[in-house]
Amino acid sequence: MPVTTIDSRPVHVDQEGFLTDPGEWDEDLATALAAQIGISLGEAHWKAIRFLREDFAARGETPTLRRVTVAGGIPTKELFTLFPQKPAKKLAYVAGLPKPHGCV
Amino acid sequence: MTTTDTAPAIVPSFDTASSQGRKLAIICSKGSLDMAYPGLILANAALGEGVETHMFFTFWGFDIINKQTMHDLKFTPLGNPATHMPQGLGGIPGITHMATSKLKKSIAELDVPEVPEFLEQIVASGGHLWACRMSADMNHLTEDDLYDEVEAIISASDFIEKTEGAQLLFI
Question: Would you say B61 and B55 are in contact if contact means Cβ atoms under 8 Å apart?
Fold first, then answer.
């Protein structure tokens, strides 16, 4: 499993670069991960990231975009603005979680 | 495989050049519940991948965007050997209602929305909905009869023009 250096610390990632150990993540790392994909985090980003972390901890899987909207209360449109083009994957990446597996 | 501190960080390539400008056109021509979902699911998936997506509703597919029918699409085992039920059962009164309820329940269990809510999600994700001119004329329907987020009733040639260079799915 590859180890890469983000924010001068080693983290375990999969072939694409998604973190494989959610325990290696903290909020400082999220800021660095977001910077890697050209996103500067504001309060609205944090709300989505924290929901993702909490939902993953509770259910053991990364929520889909629909779940972030329905259970997390963040409108779909806003998610596309915060994490442009590929919101579900970008959000999972910044939150240090695997890509969501659900189709919808 | 291990990288050293000097190697560039491994970062997902979210915005590759080949994915820029990708377009998908989905033509929905069927109005049964089981034929509505594939188009909706694929449109939603494409939008989530940053693909510009256009849906064109034509013929029976009009039921998906017709305010009168969109809440009440049905599924029938009649003429569908993939249900693996004896075909004779398909014609018994009440079977369509039962099969529809069962399918709706399975879909809801996966946390997949019903048709109107799914369209709402597709539009919120930036998807475009178009209605077929000929189908509207045949059924004497106007934009007022259609789901509010349908952008316009357009001709087949207008749709082909709008989706120039797109990959296409006919369902």
Answer: no
**Which of chain B's residues have a Cβ under 8 Å away from the Cβ of A16?**
10, 12-13
Report the C-alpha gap between A55 and A50 in whole angstroms.
8
* Mean pLDDT of all residues belonging to chain B: 91
Quick: pLDDT tens for A15-61.
999 999 999 999 999 999 999 999 999 999 999 999 999 999 999 99
If you measure CA to CA, which chain A residue comes closest to B13? A16
Q: Mean per-residue pLDDT for B47-75?
A: 96
For residue B17, being part of any structural domain is answered with no
All residues of chain A having their beta carbon less than 8 Å from the beta carbon of residue B111 are 64, 66-67, 70, 102, 104
Q: State the amino acid at position B120 in one-letter form.
A: E
A5/B126 touch (CB, cutoff 8 Å), yes or no: no
Q: Which domain holds residue B53?
A: 23-74+116-170
| Tokens 């029938």 -> residue | B76
Q: Two tokens at A100?
A: 């969501």
Nearest to B12 among A6, A87, A93 (CB): A93
On the question of pLDDT at B52 being above 80, the answer is yes
CATH of the domain at B136: 3.40.1260.10
